[in-house]
Amino acid sequence: MPSVTIKDVARLAGVSPSTVSRVISNHPRISKATAEKVRQAMETLGYHPNMTAKKLVSKSTKTLGLVLPRSAEELFANPFFSEVLRGMLACANQKQYDLLMSSANNPKEEMETVTRMVLGRQVDGMILIKPRKADPVIEKLLALDFPFVVLGRSLEHPDVPAVNNDNIAAAFDATFHLINQGHRRIGFVSGPPELVVSGDRLAGYQKALSQVKLPLRDEWVIASDILPKNGFHAVSMVMNAPDRPTAFVVSDDVVAFGMIRELVGAGYQIPEDVSVVGFNNIVLSELSNPPMTTVDIGIYHLGYQTARHLIRILQGEKVPEPNVTVPHRLVIRQSVRFLSHTDDSL
User: Fold this and answer.
1) Which part of the chain is the HTH cro/C1-type domain (predicted)?
2) Are 152 and 69 in contact (CB under 8 A)?
3) Per the CATH hierarchy, to which homologous superfamily does domain 63-165+300-315 belong?
4) What is the pLDDT of residues 235-286, one digit of tens each?
5) Would you say domain 167-296 falls under CATH 3.30.565.10?
6) Residue 200 CB coordination number (10 Å)
7) How far apart, in whole angstroms, are the C-alpha atoms of residue 340 and residue 338?
8) Does 1 score more than 90 pLDDT?
9) 72: left (phi > 0), else alpha (psi -120 to 50), else beta?
10) Mean pLDDT estimate for the chain
11) 341 secondary structure, DSSP code
12) Considering Cα of 195, then 197, then 200, then 201, what sign does the dihedral take?
């Protein structure tokens, strides 16, 4: 049986072969009605475009590159990454792009993998997740003039295309919720200090304390990698102090789970003895005991918008602003107790 060609599809749809080609390429000037008619003809005839040949002609891979700057252990332990990937894949599939993904255990591996993808012409553009301060990968891509989008933001290059939350405002809201609930001794568990997002969330926490003239206690600010086991030990030294915090803002839900486990194991009750606000609003935060108050940063939408932003750049669309901000919201559950002034001696 002879294979179906683009001319067969055009004949059945009543359009020209060039119109069929434009529909396959998602050309913006093709009307919705025409595109639907052509796709119906393709389905009726069982026609599948030869994307490999198309890529060779156009010199486009129709592939987005993504290097996750974390070990495989962390990728599987923290649901943030699977949810952000779900958003990226949903957008890439809609736009008929593939996603080439790799992980790196350290900055050197990350640089090597990005260089291999770019110079090997394996991808049309790169996505960078949670950039570091003075990130050498960003410098490399800028030097190569290679398209990329950051999920997060660059301190040194604020105008590079990026999709992000306002993490300063988000951490401010989380901290101020505790202040409004009567807490005055509030600790903060940060992410890795080399990440820009960690610095932004710390700044939001500091801003909230400053606004109500609460002192910043350096010993109550704890840096932690974003793995559950690191939360187990993050607060043990702080909680042994006579004037320990009555509440914590924790910059990742997974670390907050580990911290709660440590606190409960040491005899504390949540929220009766210690209140906790997390970050990310992963599914498990609603199922924890007690259900955890957390900041919903729209993880799926972060992933989706990052892929969309890069594809628009690759397709030559006019992008109104280089930076896209995904809104956040505080999800109030049961891990925060109202603290009256008589309880502040806890």
Assistant:
1) 5-48
2) no
3) Response regulator (3.40.50.2300)
4) 777 888 888 999 999 999 998 998 898 899 889 999 999 999 999 999 999 9
5) no
6) 22
7) 7
8) no
9) alpha
10) 89
11) G
12) negative
* 182: number of Cβ within 10 Å: 17
Q: Which two tokens stand for residue 56?
A: 């060779």
Q: What is the mean pLDDT of residues 26-50?
A: 84
189 is written with which tokens? 């568990």
Q: How many CB atoms lie within 10 A of CB 346?
A: 14
Instruction: Give me the pLDDT at residue 198, please.
Output: 94
Q: Is the pLDDT of residue 137 over 70?
A: yes
pLDDT number for residue 297: 98
More confident residue, 77 or 158: 158
Q: What is the mean pLDDT of residues 305-328?
A: 93
Using a pLDDT cut of 70, give the percent of the chain over it: 90
- Cα separation, 317 vs 258, whole angstroms: 44
Assign domain 1-45 to its CATH architecture.
Orthogonal Bundle (1.10)
For the chain, residues classed under CATH 1.10.260.40 are 1-45
- Do residues 144 and 118 touch, judged by C-beta distance below 8 A? yes
Buried b or exposed e, range 256-274, using 16+ CB within 10 angstroms: bbbbbebbeeeebebbebb
d(CA 33, CA 166): 39
How far apart CA 251 and CA 265 sit, in angstroms, is 21
- pLDDT for 74-100, tens place per residue? 667 789 999 999 999 999 999 999 999
Q: Where in the chain is the domain with CATH 3.40.50.2300?
A: 63-165+300-315, 167-296
How far is Cα 192 from Cα 205, in angstroms, rounded to an integer?
A: 16
Strand boundaries in the chain, DSSP class E: 63-68, 98-103, 125-129, 148-151, 162-164, 186-190, 221-223, 247-250, 275-279, 293-296, 323-325, 329-331
- Give the single-character DSSP code of 305: H
